[in-house]
Amino acid ABC transporter ATP-binding protein
Amino acid sequence: MNEILIRANNISKAFGEVKVLNDISFELKKGNVLSILGPSGSGKSTLLRIITQLERADRGSLYFNDKPLFEDDGSKANYSNNKIAREIGLKTGLVFQNFNLFPHFTVLRNITEAQIAVLKRDKHEAEDRAIALLKKLSLLDKAKAYPSQLSGGQKQRVSIARALAMDPEVLFFDEPTSALDPELTREVLNVIKQLSEEKMTMAVVTHEMEFAKAISDHAIFMEGGYIIEEGDKDSIFTAAEKERTRQFIHSMS
Ligand code: ADP
Ligand code: MG
């Protein structure tokens, strides 16, 4: 049995009066892929933003390797100190729908910047790592290019390389292909698939059902801030219990 890397218990979050996450609980095992499915507005991005510390939870607990990022004390989520939060943050990477590359930096510098600034690697070490990743993602010839000179699929592969350069223990993807044409979608999905074959631990928000089914070990279906159903790949993609889950997967396939 794989070790559990992330354990989320009853995470809740409201924006003002609007509850966008209600008692979200799940586990992610090392080396596994979790897909997070659900219609627009169901809270998927907010969940990823809480896990990657871009947003704060109101209630619930979240553990990485049994260490709490926050823990519910019966009335609210209490966050761990900055040192622990930072330590956990260094283990998580997030790939966005819209790439979020620095437009005024070359591809190479986009990948080395945080390695140097955050991980304190020296420039040579950071460049060696970046070049190895560019090679792996078939982007070596783009090292000196600027983001505006790349296709959407290339931009997204650069942002995946940038995330990998930080040596995260877990990678999160928030609709990584939603901004791409179908033919560019394929090249990005292939990279994520390759990472899953290398046993990278990942959670992926996606509307690409065939892809999700192919790479996931486990899936959760969310709607209206609730987990409607969760289960292993086969139970969700081929034999979902809830009519609503089946209907959603069918409508996206
Ligand atoms: P999804 O990614 O599944 O489409 P989101 O997590 O983006 O869902 O949004 C869930 C709900 O929370 C939506 O109703 C959205 O409008 C609302 N929401 C998200 N971010 C904010 C915010 N910063 N302020 C207020 N409401 C927000
Ligand atoms: Mg979203």
In short: DSSP finds nine helices and eleven strands in the chain. The pocket of adenosine-5'-diphosphate (ligand 1) is lined by residues 15, 20, 38, 40-46 (CB under 6 Å). The chain has a mean pLDDT of 96. The first helix runs from residue 44 to 51.
